[in-house]
Fold these 4 entries.
Entry 1:
Amino acid sequence: MTVARKPAIPTVQLENERVIVTEWRFEPGAETTWHRHAYDYVVVPQTTGRLLIQTDSGESIAELVAGISYDRPAGVEHNVINHNEYEFVFVEIELK
């Protein structure tokens, strides 16, 4: 059974020939929906908390700390869900 969740809210802050910078805001339980990144990317958490990550391989919890960035390669299909009882925010920087 699929759970109906509110969508996370993306706001593109900057896009040019080199990068796409997007702020993502998640209400508690909100999700990105399933997607695949076309570019390598960096995530800069603005909030400390937990995100539930769904992939074809299953689910995992990511413990993120505000200001501590991480990177991922293009191509992985996944869904990201706010696993906190408060708003979660991160900035995503896609490298074209």
Entry 2:
Amino acid sequence: MTVTGIEHVLVLSDDLDATRDFYCEVVGLHQGSRPPLEFPGYWLYAESPAACLHLADRDAYLRHIANMGLGAGKGSNGEVDHIAFDARDYESTSARIEGNGITPVRNNVPGGPRQLFVDDPNGVRVEINVKTSLEAWD
């Protein structure tokens, strides 16, 4: 059996509210339901019924996984190389980012998507891909 796609990404944060606001206001996710876990956090959603991004308070989460018998992973310092999201409308996505006072780095992949790159409040790079209907690859 192989995996079929990304389930979620966990971002550890020292400022949960600023991180939540960034992903909701700049990226366009929305806050949704989250089970009563043993550490503070948020679950954020796109159009899918599954949460694609989990946010957790760094210190509380690290204590939680230590209690589970897990050591801190390589990304537990909050540094994730990037999180990639798909988007439909380049202009409105770009306008939303700039409306939040952020200048994105722009890239056009030959034969591929138009990309916007920004950093979240924790320094995690966020990649937003806007594909055209003519693109045949994922």
Entry 3:
Amino acid sequence: MSTRIDRRTFLKTSAAVGAGVTILKSGILKAGNSPNEKLNIAVIGVRGRGHANLNGVKEENIVALCDVNEKNLAEAAQEFPQAKTYVDWRKCLDQKDIDAVVCSTTDHTHAFVNVWAMNRGKHVYCEKPLANSVHEAHVVRQTYLKNKGKLATQMGTQIHASDNYRRMVELVRRGAIGDVKKVHVWCSRTPEGGSYLPAAGPVPEHLHWDLWIGPAPEHPYNPGYFGGCLAWNRFWDFGSGQIGDMGSHMMDMAYWALDLRLPTTCQAEGSPLNPDTCPQWLTAEWDHPANDWRPAVKVYWYDGGKKPGMPSEAFNREKLFKGVLFQGERGWLLCDYDFRILMPMGDLTHFDCPKAGDLIPPSPGHHQEWIIGCKTGKPPLCNFDYSGALLENNLLALVAYRLGQKLDWDAENLKATGCPEADQYIRKQYRQGWNLNG
């Protein structure tokens, strides 16, 4: 460990990243811009999570609203009558006075909105997951990196802003359980399987079905695709199952605490392969290389009722629906959104208890972090570099599952070494007329 920086230095450095610069709405760094100046925001997708995200930014200037459902659009427009309205997000992004974009569409269009908006110099907040394939996540991340220092981005993993997350990260990085060699992450939600839905009558007049389908292969209208992410997320063309959905939240704990980036290997297994729907249960394993302050780590994922073994009956957590279990050389840390249980092996004399000045400061709120980033240049914690790598990691598990084999991952070239058949699952094919990098 002598060649790596100590945990205390890393914790203090990571908590202070991004302070001290100011950014104009145009995306050009400049000192002295007032953080009180309001942003002109376009909200794309205004109901469901879109409504929550709209409420999260409504103190700014809402200048554009977009939704493929004209009833939803009309309801939002009553609250923000000054905003221009659109049914096609591509036309919305052409509005000249927009500074920033909030994307809350269905998963299969997230990457498109993100990339198109950044290509036009817009700050972006995107509801999780950031993308719907490994390639899409990579393109979103690379587009952000080309604009780093000019644009503020944030993936909507709202629980990242909680104090419990911060205390958990401090415990891991301070060495409360020593070097972490394994981390287990799970969510017991079990989606339905089945097939793509058949045609079910004419498309309602208020719904622009072709725009809802967007870049995905064409499917006939069926209202069964609506009703929240659990309705459409289970289909390969529209979502990425629980590893894409809840994995964005739960893997975030492991990614932040251990400063993970891109894996070197991935393997997965799950329920019998269905050409239409994502697995009803999935387990996955990734190898992550050592970095400057910790050794190599194995990361495990479980969903659909699968769970890791618990270290002690004292935890009595067999009914725990979701959670993260860090396995260290000197103990265990079990945590979820709102609790953490530390189980050291022996005493804690090795643990360097954090001082007040070393604590990760409280968040002003997940949406506010992004707004502050837009106005001051301080990078939000879930920016598209961080969250893009997280999504590349997660969605690689679906590639390994569909192939039924372990992958040696070449992250730089976006290739599974010696496995060209993986390409069909790494990169999606889009309907004619839809361009990811538009």
Entry 4:
Amino acid sequence: MSPTASSPSVAARMSRQSSRDTAQELAVRRLLYASGLRYRVNARVPGMPRRTVDILFLGPRVAVFLDGCFWHGCPEHATSPKANAEWWRTKLDRNISRDRETTDHLAAEGWTVLRFWEHQPPEEIAHTVQDLVRSRRKRP
């Protein structure tokens, strides 16, 4: 059972949280597209129902995740809510575990998985992704 929000302002803020097409995702995708790379957006994880990859390159088998610091447990910026603390800790721990499971599954299937935090500059992310995708495409 889900706890109720600790205040109306918290409820409003949490309902506005986007799980896709965040500002960072859009910025990274624009940079990748401008560099000539083509990709799939919010593609399903092969073999894992109800899981998606933020940016997926099918040919070179590269999966890119842009993780929010709060939702995915950034070691630098993650915070723990004080209201409903136990419920939140369980939920956030499940997110981290699910991320690890998804990464392990994709790696076992031969994919290269790149995970970035929301605080990382989009230009840095795009550069790293471009380099990897282009190097994977050059392989025989």
